[in-house]
Amino acid sequence: MAYLVTMRLLSNSGIRLIIDGVAVVLGQAYQLARARLAGLGSPVLDRLLQRDHLNTEVELYRRELAIYRAQREAAKPHKRPTYGPEQRWAILQLMKLRGWNIPETAERFVLHPNTIGSWPKEVESGAAGRLLGDVTWNRIDDGVRWVVHELRRLFPEPEFGRRTIANHLIRAGVRISPRTVQRVLREEQPDRKPRKPRLAMKEADGGEPHGLLLPFEPNRVWHLDLTSLRVLWYRYSIAGLLGGATRKLLAIKVYRGVATSGEMIELVRDTAEEFGRADFLITDRGCQFRKVFRQAAKAMGMRPVRGPVRKPCFNGKIERFFRTLRVWMRVVLWPLGVNAMQARLDDFRRWYNRHRPHQALRGLTPDEAWDGEALPEPLTFRSMDKGSPVIMVERKPCRGDPRLPSVRIRLAA
Question: What is the pLDDT of residues 195-206, one digit of tens each?
């Protein structure tokens, strides 16, 4: 009966507040008395006070550990956090220093005795990597990892992906693969949802001329196509002429309304006068590339080739270029004049040819591939090497347009 009365009194919030207040008063009185004793200057009292202070700290730490241990014991075994390799090794060291046996150690750290008993066996059997963690011999240097994250921070554009980052680092002299860049970027990012598989494209009718899609000479094959652009209620056409081997954007021109065959003939003739004529000129089956255009191309010494029906990948190089162009056009405030729009496209052409490394060119820019240049031999930096490289990353706009970024990476090993 007395026990029930006591529990009812303790369950009352007012009684709890009174007990807590009394405890606080007693604690403050004890601290005040100890402070006065410390002011006497007696070495014996100082030692006693230090011992008392240490005993108090130990007791508080015991309470704190008891709270953590109780919380861990309340959780189910499969939901408890696991101990890492360093923590496992520290537990074994504490067991040796304190003289604990395996059951006592398992009770203190809320583990099964068989788990702790298996750790020394792994060391004796030669499988120390499971306990201590495997040595990362192939881990890239932390400086290179920082550069990858810094490039992602400076260039958040979606088209600046892992292949582009790897190409820029290779151009700067750092050996790295796109898969490694992807792994480094995922270290601090949540897992993305898997993409839905795309349906396979239907087989196209018609044959493919030999050697046109994989040319090796700069003026072997050209790709010509048109895309549309709408600004307010005005419609424009943009024509692009791309080199098949070097991916160099030879010409890009904007027209008011729908472009005609005569304008396409003039564009090809002007480009041939500047860069020399091509052997083959690939187009689609648009109205601009019919009989008149084909006759004019033959008169200029070129062989016109129209892509097969229902096979857009035959002219896929210029189509992929238009994808890059559309990504840039989404965030550009276009003027209404044709001359002003042409000036914007000329800036884009300079950036595309000089500052954008191409995946098909193994990291070279179209201008470098056109001139026959080669990339420097990249170096590999591992975390096991002595010293760390000094890598500086800078983002600069091309032709004053912040949407056309140029990467500058300086390496000082």
Answer: 666 555 444 433
